[in-house]
């Protein structure tokens, strides 16, 4: 009773919403599980796709964890962490985005009964961290290096990795076709870190198989004026001039005030304007370039002028395309036409304008520096090509990672099962509660093979039992789910390979996220942000109310 009489201590502003303790932690865990459930079915070669459409009517069909998480627009503060790790996995490694979300949620799910039983989260966190660092060490041990192989062999290994990434995507049916294309593209740009040197151009229509790789640059024909049709459309080893200036007849009198005393002088001003542009064009022609590209407009006069001299020109070329042409052909973008020396001109073996579907493309191939590649993607629906582009991006990232770190691990859940077994064995050697926690961590790792089975319609319990037995016997450390038969198979022998960095990053990020969520025991909602939200809602209401009110007023007026 005495305690009731004590004055209440007010610490936070009125209206502050706090949730704390075990209940809060459990609710965060539940939120994360709910998020993982949203992407669960997309994992693996038999995973399903998600169609997300927003209020603007944009539809996206995707299998990529990061893309889906982005589109989901999660508002739960705890669950947001999962979308963050998916995004960071996407930018770090490019693949394994579903994996990372599933792992994090599974670590939490396994921790939940302990939390409910009153285990202090920090005991769990400590054990999880130990387990994670042991797992990472084990992966590094198990990873197979592809260093020291010949280029041909390397190419084959890399395309296996790319094929594994692509097998879970919409374009999985043509994975070999695209995998070798991706590997060629990545090898073409060499060690350059600039990802945008690989361009992906999307041309709706045709079939996937009509997609092709240009070892060089390709871009859609830009807007052109009359006279363009008379220009030649194919050159062998032409010189290329890149400009960042307008080649148009400008009305110079708009830029300056000109006073005339004699009407006859007017003609001289008009002549001067023409002379300026002719002078510019003449300098371009004299440079010896056969192809003139500009970031800015090339007008009708210039187009005709070039056509008469058998020169090809294109204006309003997108900046990124121009940069890639520059990188590929060795040309430097000019901001003036004075003193164009030979060194600033680029060259390539073949330039041609070619029809692709119902678009015309300017294609530069056989470029001297060779450090660019362009994939021209074909396919039916827009959404399909968009998803194909995202999938290729994943594959490109994977190949680049594999090329850099040059270690691979068996996929299909094989590496996950092997680490799980290793951790279970380790758990048996230690005493105390942490034995249980490390076991929980080990069990959580099995979510990958289990989900692969579930998504393919296999009996997950059956397959997992076989896998556990195989791994425990020590005979098949590389055995994973066989997606074709519903049994188990040697993932290495089946060429289901993943760069080790995908797994390393995924386990690292997922453990960190799980520990982060476990260490939160209180959420405080600032009343200020709530009232700001309230205001926004109120103004939205007013906005909706406004026209309605006016509408009624209007009717009233008419009646009168
Ligand atoms: P993520 O977004 O995590 O990359 P994916 O949908 O791409 O998710 O699925 C990747 C998982 O599918 C990996 O664990 C990989 O080992 C597995 N996988 C890919 N191809 C095969 C295959 N042919 N057989 C078995 N498992 C595969
Ligand atoms: Mg993937």
UniProtKB/TrEMBL annotation:
Task: Please state what the protein is called.
Answer: T-complex protein 1 subunit eta
Q: Does the keyword Nucleotide-binding apply?
A: yes
Family annotation (SUPFAM superfamilies) = GroEL apical domain-like, GroEL equatorial domain-like, GroEL-intermediate domain like
Provenance organism: Rhynchospora breviuscula
Q: Which UniProt keyword terms apply here? A: ATP-binding, Chaperone, Cytoplasm, Nucleotide-binding
CDD domains found in the cross-reference section:
TCP1_eta
Q: What does this protein do?
A: Molecular chaperone; assists the folding of proteins upon ATP hydrolysis. Known to play a role, in vitro, in the folding of actin and tubulin.
What residue spans carry the region label Disordered?
527-560
NCBIfam families in alphabetical order: chap_CCT_eta, thermosome_alpha, thermosome_beta
Per the record's keyword annotation, is Nucleotide-binding included, yes or no?
yes
Pfam families from the xrefs? Cpn60_TCP1
Ranges annotated as biased composition (Low complexity): 532-542
Instruction: Give the subcellular location.
Output: Cytoplasm
Extract the GO molecular function terms from the UniProt entry.
ATP binding; ATP hydrolysis activity; ATP-dependent protein folding chaperone; unfolded protein binding
Which InterPro entries does the record associate with it? Answer: Chap_CCT_eta, Chaperone_TCP-1, Chaperonin_TCP-1_CS, Cpn60/GroEL/TCP-1, GroEL-like_apical_dom_sf, GROEL-like_equatorial_sf, TCP-1-like_intermed_sf, TCP-1_chaperonin
Q: Which family does it belong to?
A: Belongs to the TCP-1 chaperonin family.
**Gene Ontology, cellular component aspect:** chaperonin-containing T-complex
Q: How does it assemble?
A: Heterooligomeric complex that forms two stacked rings.
């Amino acid at each position: 009773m005495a305690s009731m009489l004590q004055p209440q201590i007010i610490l936070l502003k009125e209206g502050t919403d706090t949730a704390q303790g075990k209940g809060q932690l459990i609710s965060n865990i539940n939120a994360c599980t709910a998020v993982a459930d949203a992407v669960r079915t997309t994992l693996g070669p038999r995973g399903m796709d998600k169609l997300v459409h927003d209020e603007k009517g944009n539809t996206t069909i995707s299998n990529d964890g990061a893309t889906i998480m982005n589109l989901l627009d999660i508002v739960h503060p705890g669950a947001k962490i999962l979308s963050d790790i998916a995004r960071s996995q996407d930018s770090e490694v490019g693949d394994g985005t579903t994996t990372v979300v599933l792992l994090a949620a599974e670590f939490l799910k396994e921790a939940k009964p302990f939390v409910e039983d009153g285990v202090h989260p920090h005991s769990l966190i400590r054990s999880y961290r130990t387990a994670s660092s042991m797992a990472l060490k084990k992966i590094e041990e198990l990873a197979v290096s592809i260093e020291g192989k010949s280029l041909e062999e390397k190419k084959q290994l890399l395309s296996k990795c790319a094929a594994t990434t692509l097998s879970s995507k919409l374009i999985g049916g043509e994975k070999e076709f695209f995998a070798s294309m991706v590997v060629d593209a990545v090898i073409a740009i060499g060690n350059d870190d600039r990802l945008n040197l690989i361009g992906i151009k999307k041309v709706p229509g045709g079939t996937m198989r009509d997609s092709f790789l240009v070892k060089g640059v390709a871009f859609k024909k830009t807007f052109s004026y009359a006279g363009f049709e008379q220009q030649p459309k194919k050159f062998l080893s032409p010189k290329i001039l890149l400009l960042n200036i307008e080649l148009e007849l400008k009305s110079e009198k708009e830029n300056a005030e000109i006073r005339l005393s004699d009407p006859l002088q007017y003609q001289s001003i008009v002549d001067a304007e023409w002379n300026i542009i002719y002078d510019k064009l003449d300098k371009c022609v004299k440079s010896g370039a056969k192809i003139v590209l500009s970031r800015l407009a090339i007008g009708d006069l210039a187009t005709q002028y070039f056509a008469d001299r058998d020169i090809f020109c294109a204006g309003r070329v997108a900046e990124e395309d121009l940069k890639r042409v520059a990188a590929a052909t060795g040309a430097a973008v000019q901001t003036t036409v004075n003193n164009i020396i030979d060194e600033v001109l680029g060259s390539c073996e073949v330039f041609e304008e070619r029809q692709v579907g119902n678009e015309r493309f300017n294609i530069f191939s056989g470029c001297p520096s060779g450090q660019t590649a362009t994939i021209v993607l074909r396919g039916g629906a827009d959404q399909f090509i968009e998803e194909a582009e995202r999938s290729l991006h994943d594959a490109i990232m994977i190949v680049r990672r594999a090329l850099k770190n040059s270690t691979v691990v068996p996929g299909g859940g094989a590496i996950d099962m092997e680490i799980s077994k290793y951790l279970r064995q380790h758990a048996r050697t230690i005493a105390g509660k942490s034995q249980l926690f490390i076991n929980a961590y080990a069990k959580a790792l099995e979510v990958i093979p289990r989900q692969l089975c579930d998504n393919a319609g296999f009996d997950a319990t059956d397959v997992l039992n076989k896998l556990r037995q195989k791994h425990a016997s020590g005979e098949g450390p590389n055995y994973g789910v066989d997606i074709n038969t519903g049994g188990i198979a040697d993932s290495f022998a089946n060429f289901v390979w993943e760069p080790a960095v995908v797994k390393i990053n995924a386990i690292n990020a997922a453990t960190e996220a799980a520990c982060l969520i476990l260490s939160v025991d209180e959420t405080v909602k600032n009343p200020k942000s709530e009232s700001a939200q309230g205001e926004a809602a109120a103004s939205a209401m007013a906005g909706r109310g406004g026209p309605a009110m006016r509408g009624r007023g209007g009717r009233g007026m008419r009646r009168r």
